[in-house]
């Protein structure tokens, strides 16, 4: 079965913070708008995160992420679960501090909720800047 993008308009998303609470300019929606001009920019602080609550059960197999160099994460922890269950660790990913799109294969995992925690930011203040976030796999 070919992989397909799993994030859609029905996917509920949350983020740990937004720079200066300026959601119009730096909000979470910009990670999913396919524009190279917009991004999610977190506020400062350690361990920024994004949660995705899918409208239906999915099988995740890939994560696509594009940071702004200098504002990336040296360690991304993926956790997921089915509705009503406790989250379990799926993978630790080690992105490069670059501007290019990075693609990570992850062990295929069936879930309803996914949390991506950005630990160990390359920015001194702990800010994270994401231009594109994609989760690929299969809708079940």
How would you describe what is shown here?
This protein is 3% helix and 53% strand. Strand 5 (73-81) and strand 6 form a beta hairpin. The longest helix is centred in the N-terminal third of the chain and has 4 residues, at 23-26. Strands 1, 2, 3, 4, 5, 6, 7 and 8 form an eight-stranded antiparallel sheet that branches. The mean pLDDT is 96. It is an all-beta fold and 140 residues long.
Give a nutshell description of this structure.
With 140 residues, this protein is mainly β. The chain has one helix spanning 23-26; strands at 4-5, 12-15, 40-41, 48-67, 73-81, 88-93, 102-121, 129-139.
List the helices and strands and how they pair.
Elements lengths: L3 E2 L6 E4 L7 H4 L13 E2 L6 E20 L5 E9 L6 E6 L8 E20 L7 E11 L1
Antiparallel strand pairs: 1-8, 2-4, 3-8, 4-7, 4-8, 5-6, 5-7
